[in-house]
Amino acid sequence: MSFAEPVPVRAGAEVVVGPARRGVRSYVAFSGGIDVPPVLGSRSTDTLAGVGPAPLRAGDVLPLGSPTGSPAALDVAVPVRPGGPLRLWRGPRADWLTPADWEVLTGSAYVVSPDSDRIGMRVLGPPLVRANRGELPSEGMVLGAVQVPPSGLPVVFLHDHPVTGGYPVVAVVDARDVWRCAQARPGEPVRFVLR
Fold first, then answer.
1. Residue 78: its pLDDT value, please?
2. HEC per residue, 48-96
3. Which residues pair with 23 in a beta bridge?
4. What string of DSSP letters covers 2-52?
5. Is domain 86-194 in CATH 2.40.100.10, yes or no?
6. 86-90 and 192-194: which strand pairing?
7. Do 85 and 164 form a contact (C-beta atoms < 8 A)?
8. Alpha-carbon distance 99 to 190, whole Å?
9. What is the mean pLDDT of the chain?
10. For 10-39, how does the pLDDT look when each residue is reduced to its tens digit (9 = 90+)?
């Protein structure tokens, strides 16, 4: 079967989705959607807040809604960019890192932590010391925000990120590279470069 194309499936057929060949996540859509009760207007699961339908488990049977029309081809271009450093923009708390911290962040090889998920890509490697070791009130965060918790190990926030956080957001991953963070496999090397 081809990538990113609609595939007709007869009623009662079993659909098997194998492991991702690249990255860690695959996406499947159904004409008519998955017919579960919406929570706050959404049928998806918020893993951080624990609201919405239960996360899928092996053996689950999905109730499908009625198709709303003919399947359409992919309407969004699939980003393709070979590996390389993740581009960073300085964030609102960039001054919480010393020049030496910036050298560590942009000059070190990090690896993706097994603790990464849809909330954030966590990395293992040299910790950042932070010029300011204090705490601050919660602030709004955007997709791709790079927060430095007390451990000193950066976290890149992804689609299920919280709306606020209490640790400094020192940088933001360029919007063109965020998808790469979401598809990074545990143990994969990661490098950062400042724009």
1. 61
2. CCCECCCCCCCCCCCCECCCCCCCCCCCCCCCCCCCCCEEEEECCCHHH
3. none
4. -TT------TT--------SSSS------TT-B----BTTB-S-BTTTTBS
5. yes
6. parallel
7. no
8. 20
9. 87
10. 888 888 888 877 788 777 888 888 899 988
| Beta carbons within 8 Å of 73's beta carbon, 6+ residues apart | 4, 5, 6
How many residues does the structure list for the chain?
195
Kindly give the residue spans of alpha helices, DSSP state H, lying in 98-146: 99-107
Q: Where are the domains of the chain?
A: 1-78, 86-194
Q: What are phi and psi of 176, to 5 degrees?
A: -70, -15
Of 104, 141, 143, 144, residue with least CA distance to 126: 104
The C-alpha atoms of residue 169 and residue 102 are separated, in whole angstroms, by 13
Q: Which amino acid is it at 141? A: M
Residue with tokens 């918020």: 46
Q: How far apart are CA 103 and CA 52, in angstroms?
A: 42
In the numeric block, which tokens belong to residue 16?
A: 């098997």
